[in-house]
Amino acid sequence: MNRKKIFIIVGAVVSVGIISGVFFFNRERFFPKKETEKASEISVSPSPKEDMLLWDDPAGFTFQYPKGLTVDKHDEDQENYAHVELTSPDHKGRVIVWAKDTTATTISQWLKNEKSLVGAASIDTILGGNEAKKVMVKEPKSKQITATLDEDILVMVETESESQDFWQSVNDDIVRSMAFSTTVKDEDTGSAQAAGGEPQAEADEEETLE
Length: 210
Prior knowledge:
Radius of gyration: 35 Å
Structural class: alpha+beta
CATH class of the largest domain: Alpha Beta
Helix content: 40-55%
Oligomer: single chain
Strand content: 25-35%
Number of helices: 7
Number of domains: 2
Number of strands: 10
CATH architecture of the largest domain: 3-Layer(aba) Sandwich
CATH superfamily of the largest domain: Mog1/PsbP, alpha/beta/alpha sandwich
Shape: elongated
């Protein structure tokens, strides 16, 4: 009688163990982890890209920049073709996009003649599809300059990176998206040709009279 009870107890324990093992190894089948699956779906969803705005400058170039920046095109600057300053209320520093006259015929010649950049480290790069120079300036202020020639006009993206990560990202957006169209020189030449028919005839007439 005692031995029979022992067999019954052992059999019951073994049965419980087998059933527990089945549930343990198939717990995900019987009780799916809904929260884990949901979290996994969220983690693979792409985050939305920051809104970008397009700047179309009369000097003959365009570029994209992050929404939220303040843009000052410095209408008071009558010396340069473009003087576009981008600042942020939350980050120290700025980016200025310049378009200037230059006597240099290559970007390497410009860099060699630019006294303010003597001794600064530089590398070859591309800006708007043109050969360009990226120059790292340490003094008096830390800044990065990416410059190229669009025909005979010097175009520069000058970044003062006090908030380095933020402004480096803005700089990269501008440099990567820069594109050139019609330069100021082309517009001036085209205007002269369009309106220059009669003055040219007058000039020919004066030469004939001489």
